[in-house]
Amino acid sequence: MENVIELHDVSKSLKAFTIHNMDLQIKQGYVTGFIGANGAGKSTTMKLIMNLLQPDNGEINVFGLDYASHEKEIKNRIGFVYDSNIFYESLNLKDISRIIAPAYTHWDQQQFKAYVNQFDLPLNKPMKKFSKGMQMKASIAMALSHDAELIVMDEPTAGLDPTSRRELLDIFQEVMVDGKRTILFSTHITSDLDRIADFIVLIDEGEILIDKPVYELQEQYAVVKGSNELLDADTEVYFIKIERSPNGFQALTKEAAKVRGVFGKHVVIEEASLEEIMFYMKGARNLYG
Amino acid sequence: MFNLIKKDFFIQKTQIGLLVPIIMIFAIFIENIHPAFIFLIASVFIPLNAYIFDQQSKSNILLNSLPYTRKEIVAARYIGAIVYMILSIALAGVILYVFQFDYTMSDVAIAAGLFCLIAAFAFPLFYFLKAEYIFIAAFIGFIVSTIILPPVFRFLAAHLTTITDFITSLSIATLYLSGAAIAIGLYLISWVVSQLIYQRKVF
């Protein structure tokens, strides 16, 4: 399995926080969901990947190339979508596409027109009159119209209503059908990823806590519920974070199989959703960190 | 690079239409204005407007996500400014000619030189400052220069007669050539400085 994006030992200090010695590999041909709370470092990492920020230390390779000598070649093969409008607000989509199109060597005007029709986008209306959903679709139409091998999306679903979110997710699924493309998709709405993600990367305070295929997460992580008497020094080690109440405990484990063996039918074991994993992992860090 | 220069035209298509009536108003209604000043206004219009447009949106993020290097983005700004200056001066020249407003080639030369000087100082400052501070900086710069510069020049003229004698002793040709050399030199230095600033910029 080849890596499209590789971060080796990357550090970056910003005013708000720091990324310490981050290692990250994004696999080719899959959808990787990049999750974390607001301010966890998702956007900073995305900016590092897009070379909008340069690392203080470490190495960033995209398609096996480094930005210092292959910046144009790399960006020519990336489609990008950001969480806010980065296009000239007073221009219409037609003029914006006239600015974007000549920048790429593989711009496909037919493809762009097809997406514009599919998304019902007006060509002659200024961007500032677009709804948030339309802006996102316009962004996606441009990202998908130059034969990009990697699509980097920073919170593409933020601020969208449930219907538009669903529509966008359907589009991403369509885009992935041919299997050549790679999508890196950051979000704090974890339910977006349930349908489309193959890999999950969880980041908190600039540090990567989880980097696993979705099926492994589902296999290993589980939410366990049972009575408080079951907990003692020997059994607590199986859990990442335990929440106790008078009625019993609820905890996250990443050793679902072992817990099943140890507790048997004395506990209820449920599949952990991404949201639960994110919530408990963050809770555990605050406890010990 | 050519695409980036063309972009400056696209983003302000409607504003560029205003340039013609503005020059016409100067040519028809204002009589005591120096023609060099009209050329200067015309040449500053497009590059400055392009810059303001780029600041209003998050276009730095857009441009830097497209397959362009930061070097190219700065180069397009500097080369584009010269291209648009030449086009604007040509346009102003035609309009002034049509309205029989007298001017000479030296007016054009003075305007072009002043344009290079203004751009040489303004562009690095634009890259260095955040958008919201630029107008404040420009305003303060303008006030300070109107208060300080005239007395400075008067002082220099009165006390440093050797300098003024030297300047007046130069032939017109040397004066223009050295002026051009200084303007172009500063413009090139400014380009290098802007590039250094832009390479380090955080978006």
TrEMBL record, chain A:
Sorted UniProt keywords: ATP-binding, Nucleotide-binding, Transport
Record-annotated ABC transporter domain positions: 5-230
Gene3D superfamilies the UniProt entry points to: P-loop containing nucleotide triphosphate hydrolases (3.40.50.300)
Taxonomic placement: Bacteria, Bacillati, Bacillota, Bacilli, Bacillales
Highest taxon of the lineage: Bacteria
GO molecular function, one term: ATP binding
Organism this protein belongs to: Oceanobacillus neutriphilus
Name listed for the protein in its UniProt record: ABC transporter ATP-binding protein
InterPro entries: AAA+_ATPase (IPR003593), ABC_transporter-like_ATP-bd (IPR003439), ABC_transporter-like_CS (IPR017871), ABC_Transporter_VariousFunc (IPR051782), P-loop_NTPase (IPR027417)
Signal peptide region: none
TM stretches of this protein: none
CDD domains noted in UniProt: ABC_DR_subfamily_A (cd03230)
TrEMBL record, chain B:
Highest taxon above the source species: Bacteria
One Pfam family per UniProt: ABC2_membrane_5
Keyword terms, alphabetized: Membrane, Transmembrane, Transmembrane helix
The UniProt record lists the keyword Hydrolase: no
Transmembrane feature ranges: 12-30, 36-53, 74-99, 105-126, 133-153, 173-198
PANTHER family recorded: MEMBRANE PROTEIN, MEMBRANE PROTEIN-RELATED
Name the record gives this protein: Permease
Keyword RNA-binding: no
Organism encoding this protein: Oceanobacillus neutriphilus
Cited InterPro entries: ABC2_memb-like (IPR025699)
